[in-house]
Amino acid sequence: MSICRTHAPSRRALLGTALGGLALPRRALSQPDYPNRPVRVIVPWAPGGAVDTLARRISQKLSDGMGRTFVVENKSGATGTIGAAEAARAAPDGYTLLAMDNTYAMLPYLFSRLPFDQATAFQPITVTAFSPVLLAVGEKSPYRDLGSLIADARKDPEKLTYGTGGIGSAPHFATLAFERAAGVKLYHVPFRGAGEAVIGVLSNNVDLVMLSPGSALGNIRGGQLRPLAISGDRRVAALPDVPTFPEAGLPGFGVINWSGLAAPKGTPEAIVQRLHAEVVRALAAPDMAGFVAELGSEPGGITPAAFGQLLGDEAARWRDVAASGGIERQ
User: Which CATH architecture has domain 11-131+257-324?
Assistant: First the structure.
């Protein structure tokens, strides 16, 4: 069963929604008293990861554009729930934001109980970037195209191994979605982090890994990683020689990672709209656009309403993947 073509919006459609957000009512942009002190941006992951890197760049742009400091604070642990819980407890006044990613939509299928209501704890602001997902093998791998890898995986279930940063991580879910789309069964090797999973492929200890381009570009350009396919409806400029999954023979897979900003439930609408407008403006700046493109990603900027719809759609999508992959709630 395909989870992607039917449910996942194309990058082109999402970008169209983002551009529509530029035409905001003047009254939504008028919030003269906000911000009048520093704003915390809680990143629920350790420093140096994709979410953290993007949050720091967008926070700097917001600081420059709004005249007040946006300070990134890393509160990692428990698959992002420690940082999310702290943000959810914060006053809904626009001075605490959460940098979330698609892992947030997976939380209900990882934990039987959360310290916040996952569906209602936050007011979505916007997606900051959409990132496709790569399937990559090591330079010594015998696989040079996706078709041969899928053929071997179908012939010998669980012979091929894949590495992730842990059970329930976004790459774990993405690979389970790939299994469903390709009709294969792989063997999961969880590592203590995404970096270790990449090392596992580089050292030929696991056969493949699925990750965002920004986490792999250095090793790809250095020849240590060989990408076989990338998700999305068209190739990315940073990796023009890498075919999309449909081009590689698998039209049913289209998982797209995303990063975004959200505020605690109850944050005034005028503040949410002001933040949305400022993020859209920041993403349009040439330096920010170049930074996002260098990551192999595309800018976000979709409206708060569209982001809320995306969160709901993602939650429904990952429910089926979690069930088919046998993921048990902790």
Answer: 3-Layer(aba) Sandwich (3.40)
